[in-house]
Amino acid sequence: MNCQPKVDSRGTSALWDCARDAEPWEPPTGTSPLDARRRTRLIWGFLVLGLVARTVRFLLRFPLWEDECFLAANFIDRGYLDLLQPLNYHQVAPLGFLWIELSCVKLLGFNEWSLRLYPFLASIASLFLFRRLAMRLLEGTALVLAVALFSVTYSGVRYAAEAKPYGTDQFVALVLLSLAVEWWRRPDQRRWLWGLTACVPLSIVLSYPSVFVAGGISLVMALVMWVQRHQADAPARDRPSYVAFNLVLVASFLGVVWLAARHQADAELGWMQNYWKDNLPSLTSPARFAWWLLVTHTGDLLAIPLGGERGASTLSFVLCLVGLAAMVRARRVTLLAFCLAPAALNIVAALLGRYPYGGHVKFSQYLAPAICLLLGAGGAAWLGMRRGAPAPVRRTLAVGLAFCALIAVATMARDFASPYKSRTDLRYRDFARCFWFNMEFAGEAVCLKTDLGREFAPGTFRDLGWSAMYLCNQRIYSPRHARGEPPRFDRVSEQWPLRCVEFKAEVYRYDQAAFERWLAAMQSRWDLVARDTLPFPCYDQRGRNVLCVDAVEVYKFVPKRAATARR
Q1: C-alpha distance from residue 525 to each of 268, 366, 429, 561 (Å)
Q2: Nearest 5°: phi and psi at 530?
């Protein structure tokens, strides 16, 4: 649809009339550098590359790292209803995600693969959903670039194999956007809008930021229906279903808040706001707000396909601006709204202190589809700005696509060479593999926390710390704990001693008096014959600086000798 800047008899600007143009779009690039067959091959080639990169990461079975353990530790001894209550380790996650994770653990056991299965499957589905969505909105070079960037982005590969909800946020956003775009393209088929309405409750349960996507879709739908209000073929029957969509959206949001989110917010909102403080803007100073927007959009928010803080995502930011400018020039009003409306609602939530905008790239995974659409359009528009013969344009495009492929290859090479996030994660897993397995062949190994319910440093198993990693690896690599069996105290003898294992975190105040009382109670029944301390230094992500030195204490008991002699 070629929109002209005219005004119809009712005063509706053709700029707004362009909101009805639902045909795939490509910024003008002159002679297309890619024919249709080559475009198809490139799209499928990058999809396969993204699929392989995600599968490699998943199958390499990285050790659980601390952020995963903070959440996963809540699945060790909780049931479904227990997950309605505030989580340990200052965790906040949607109830649907928690219940799916717990179901995987109950069905497949507590291990790295079961914990990461749902995010992995959601990420694979996201690849193909994004291809379909992008083909509905873009074509030509812009389509190829968008799919390539989405497939190889490092954060997309990473969160495909992490037991956290960020990758599933992306999947849920794509489901909602795909249904909304189908309705936009075929407004006469009400099934798309009713299908979207039916998906909203499940989406809100599965993903907190999906409320921004659903709210943004509501704004886009209102725009399209407002544009069509004077059209003779305007489907007035959409209005009841649109009202139903918004009622379901509001009811679902309030229901999730009442059922689970309010408990998490009551317990963690203050802590989270302090954690998010750099990503919660204020309007008290317009200049400071503008600077915050610039810093945020050149930082981790736009780390696609690569990037980071301190301006490392500046190139992505510039290409997004080029893409936005191209959409404005082409009057692609609805496409622009699909890309920007969820982010705008997220900024409002950040201003209210309820959800961060920017910061770590994990918070913007639900925006990744819109960002990739903007980057694809921006890249194609930038190629169109170049003057001269088609050959230099093709070479530039080839270099860009080769760079995208190199990102995926380098990611897989790095994963093969170092299949862990940090060496501390690797050491904790190696310790658990050796210690718990061997202990169960040398006596009755009992954990003070998980088997006896003893804790002498309040906060150790509630606040952030490496105790979560200790608990998770114990559950995975202790054969008895993995089977869910209680300890057998009746087997304890001099030949089969009782070994009580205690995790001690350096940063928490230890109640020595309570420990002495427990030890005295134990010694009334058993003889303490040995006590070993295994120090455990924890390093930063780069493995250079020691953050703390935790420890595992092992107390070896045998039956009282006097009691043994009488028997």
Answers
A1: 42, 57, 33, 10
A2: -160, 155
| Sequential DSSP letters for 365-388 | GGGHHHHHHHHHHHHHHHHHH--S
Check residue 486 and report its DSSP letter: P
7-40 tens-digit pLDDT = 444 444 454 445 556 688 888 765 567 788 899 9
pTM of this prediction? 0.91
Q: Classify residue 526 by its DSSP letter.
A: E
The tokens for 417 are 């060479």
Residues 424-464 have pLDDT tens digits of 999 999 999 999 989 888 899 999 999 999 999 988 998 88
For residues 88 and 267, is the Cβ–Cβ distance under 8 A? no
Residue that the structure tokens 């659980």 belong to: 64
Please give the DSSP secondary-structure letter assigned to residue 138: B
Beta-carbon contacts of 480 under 8 Å, excluding residues fewer than 6 positions away, are 440, 445, 487
Q: What tens digit of pLDDT does each residue of 319-375 get?
A: 999 999 999 998 888 899 999 999 999 999 999 999 999 888 999 999 999 999 999
**449: which 2 tokens?**
């926390």
Peptide bond before 305: cis, by omega within 30 degrees of 0? yes
- Long-range contacts made by residues 189-196, C-beta under 8 angstroms, separation at least 24? 190/235, 190/237, 190/238, 190/241, 193/221, 193/238, 193/241, 193/242, 193/245, 194/241, 194/244, 196/245
Dihedral of the alpha carbons of 158, 161, 165, 171, in degrees to the nearest 10: 80
Question: From CA 505, how far away is CA 196, in angstroms rounded?
Answer: 48
